[in-house]
Specification:
207 residues; Arc Repressor Mutant, subunit A; mainly alpha; homotetramer; 11 helices; DNA-binding; 0% strand; elongated; Tetracycline Repressor, domain 2
Chain lengths: 207, 207, 207, 207
DNA sequence: CATGAATGAGTCTTCATTCAT
DNA sequence: AATGAATGAAGACTCATTCAT
């Protein structure tokens, strides 16, 4: 939704503004950041901001979408493996890719956390929509796995998809934002997967 | 942290203010609500607000804490059963108690969601602290279950506690806020528990 | 329409603000004056302006209405003579009273001219309403005169009322604003009345 | 005062711009219209506007003057009858011509009303000048009539000219703008003329 | 000359907090 | 202690005009 004036901008300047936006939102968060902060971080005149974006919300949405697109370039190669492999088997690799992306764009992760935690009702709508979509995609992959016999037929895939999504969205990203080392995060992910795969019940208890 | 002036208030007036605060925060959310909105909803003079609370943040924190205390009165009776029963076996009852509380205080749930999603950094700190504490308590209960042989010894209890916490915090409350019927939510909770208890792996696959 | 906060103000301060408003609107006119100009002229803080008035329009309307009320205190005594005398015979005295008021409130006259000439659509509505009402009142007086046989029965009183109104509104006030002496204005008024009373036709021409 | 760049423009484009200006000023009025509105209505680049006109005021003045010239083409034929006929006898025809022009250019009439009612001090000056000139011309015609014995020698012609001018400027045009039918307006004009010609005094009253 | 992007001063309005009564 | 009027520092957004291409 940035205006055409922004789209038509020299790639270099567009990049500078993109990074300025990240910096500004990163420092203060969506609610607290002012247009004055933003134009300072982007090194553009105040009027130009309104040439490029409708308002603060428009600019924030642009950052989120652009960041999401960038993230997909990390993840897409992995998704090609899905024909041959179970989704579950590449999940850890997916998390790893997410962390790689996070390491390359550390400020964006904090930004993402703030987005995830925004109380602005317009963002809330966008977010809910994004979440629903992401969970749906996950569910689609899991359905294939279930068809291939990798997952018990009676497992509720929506519940499963939500668990996987939230683990990724909240725990992994939050811990990354807190500075936890990649290896520690991956260990933690394996713990989650272990529970999800095998359950927590003492087997001797069952039979 | 409300001031002594507030503590010393007639219980009835204190209640009116508590409900006014809920109403005000419920309608507009923490960031957007103004002190003018608040004093109007509480039917107190503007000056009195600053007699009772440090500022908006202080008032919000008061609501959250007070609400939390109220919620515990729904949950405490269940926790007494923990001596005899496995935590896991009362988890569904706990969720049910949470939903009961939510049904008695519907505005608070929306408020809670907003709180959970607030991007204010002061709230963020409080929230992180609250979350850590809640997860710790959960982990404590699970530890007992593990000791009693209800949970496999190699299960990562921190991971498990986080999963249980987030399921409750995000999925259950969010769905309640969206108006999903109690029974549907409980069915969903059972699906989560099923996955966590027994895992998703096709058994024939294993052996 | 000023807020209660303004109504409740100390009479002295209210007067100061009233005069500040006149000064501000007088210097720049309704469209061009800024709230900054106004609060400076009134010697009140910027925030106070919004405590007292809804906005610039509200403040302007207050000035107009208050001025109108003041003007009526000059005119009311004359209207009492209407029982005994023809409206036409006191018209000159009415104009004189209007000029007296104008001499006591010279800035208001320029303000009035500006109001009369405002292109703001909200003012336009108010103005049209005011004008219609004033012409109606005039017409009422003329109707009595016609009934008493002072005016030819076939004279269109609405047309007459409009002529009298516009002479007063535009010519007299405009000339006063331009600094024309009272006596000269009254001479001019007599010329208008002469035409209206006796017509312009050369009598020998008629018969 | 448009710049030479505008004068040199293709007649067709000049016409398009003229009509765009009318549209823009018509919709929003002089004070409220922005240069952005104008260039949009004229379908010219923003930069071009400043190639053609000094500023908004210059453009507005151009419209008024151009409109006035157009209006004269409706009125000029009538003025030729003045050698043989009394001005007063063609006044109604003049008003009719004015209404004809208004019917052909309805937006301009509203524009004219707005102009007449503008509080902008630069327009005010222009307006006063225009008004003085128009009244002077009227007075010139009336002088001839008086010399020919159509008007009593003691009638104040300046007063008379003003009355005729204001009747035309305010009442006729305003009523047209309000959508009053031509025939009704002409009836009203006759009522004005009747008063002015014959006066309002009950003749029997006099002698 | 033509264009439309760039500029930043200027405007209204809101609001948390203080303070006089 | 209780009240609600007073305060002025921000903040978002607009817009006439300039200027680089």
């Amino acid at each position: 939704m940035p205006k055409n004036t922004f789209i038509g901008l020299h790639a270099e300047k567009r990049r500078r503004i993109y990074e300025g936006l990240i910096e500004a939102f990163y420092v203060a968060g969506y609610e607290a950041v002012t247009v004055a902060d933003i134009v300072k971080a982007c090194r553009i005149p105040r009027g130009s901001f309104y040439m490029y974006f409708e308002d603060k919300f428009d600019a924030f949405l642009y950052v989120l979408k652009h960041a999401q697109e960038e993230k997909m370039t990390y993840i897409n190669p992995l998704l090609k493996r899905l024909d041959r492999e179970a989704f579950f088997d590449i999940y850890e690799a997916l998390v790893k890719a997410g962390i790689d992306y996070a390491e390359d764009n550390p400020k964006l992760v904090k930004l993402w956390m703030r987005f995830y935690h925004s109380s602005n009702y317009r963002l809330d709508d966008y977010w809910r929509q994004f979440e629903t979509q992401a969970i749906d995609i996950l569910k689609g992959y899991l359905l294939k796995d279930q068809a291939r016999g990798y997952i018990r037929p009676d497992v509720d895939l929506l519940a499963l998809a939500k668990m996987l999504y939230h683990i990724q969205a909240i725990d992994i990203m939050e811990r990354f934002a807190q500075g936890v080392k990649t290896e520690a995060i991956l260990t933690s992910v394996r713990a989650f997967l272990d529970i999800i795969k095998f359950g927590i019940k003492e087997v001797s208890d069952e039979k």
